[in-house]
Design brief:
The complex is a heterodimer of chains A (75) and B (168). Chain A is of the alpha+beta class. In chain A, 31% of the residues lie in helices and 35% in strands. Chain A has two helices and four strands. A four-stranded mixed beta sheet of chain A has the order 1-2-4-3, with helices on one face. Chain B has a domain of 106 residues: DsrEFH-like (Hypothetical Protein Ychn, Chain: A). Chain B is built from seven helices and five strands, in the order E-H-E-H-H-H-H-E-H-E-H-E. Chain B has a five-stranded parallel beta sheet, with helices on both faces. Classes of the chains: A alpha+beta (75), B alpha/beta (168). At the A-B interface, helix 1 and helix 2 of A face helix 1 of B.
Chain lengths: 75, 168
Amino acid sequence: MNFDKELDARGLNCPLPILRTKKGLAELTSGQVLKVIATDPGSVKDMQAFAKQTGNELVSSAEAGGEFTFFMKKK
Amino acid sequence: MAKKLAIIATKGTLDWAYPPLILASTAAALDYEVQVFCTFYGLQLLKKDVSGLKVSPLGNPGMPMKMPFGPKWFKDINWNIPNIVQANVPGYESLATTLMKMTIKNCGVASIEDLRGLCIEADVKFVACQMTVELFGFEHSEFIDGLDFVGAASFLEFAGDSDICLYI
């Protein structure tokens, strides 16, 4: 998937992946996509909740080898 | 209109400094307007230097005592140390705090100083209880800049309109 910015949140724990995601999105314009890689298992539900509450779109969410990859489209 | 989160922070230990700051920073990231009213021991969260915050395992049966270093079998041991020993070993609290800070770092959890900085950056408003500042003999100069020193009525004005209000 195409993305405009990548954020490495590996090794970070709650609430840092969400806070970094928020910051990362702030540097994008509407419609651009942020890729986030995290290792915090709690981030799966948290990213969904973040998207739902902020109106940004969680385009995809996948797990591979203990790493979670998210694509978040800025509203 | 933005949702509002009002928090009353009353605890002044390293462990209990986390819940208000985690919730405040996350709520700010979710576009909440956040106010944290720090009163009694919660004033410690607003000191310029928060490196002195400590955790006390004494009389806290819910706190696992595990070592942040060594092989896995060693880290997995839960050291069940009787209260009477904890209370009599000088520096026990400082040792526990050092170990907890190592664990915090190992787990990728933000330090209190960093988390507070993220809150301020995200426009979380911290207010300090003026009555407790006087009660504890603190000076305004001991606290971070930009604070309002207020009373209960001021906090309730914000809290009364809030969507979530938490006492921590």
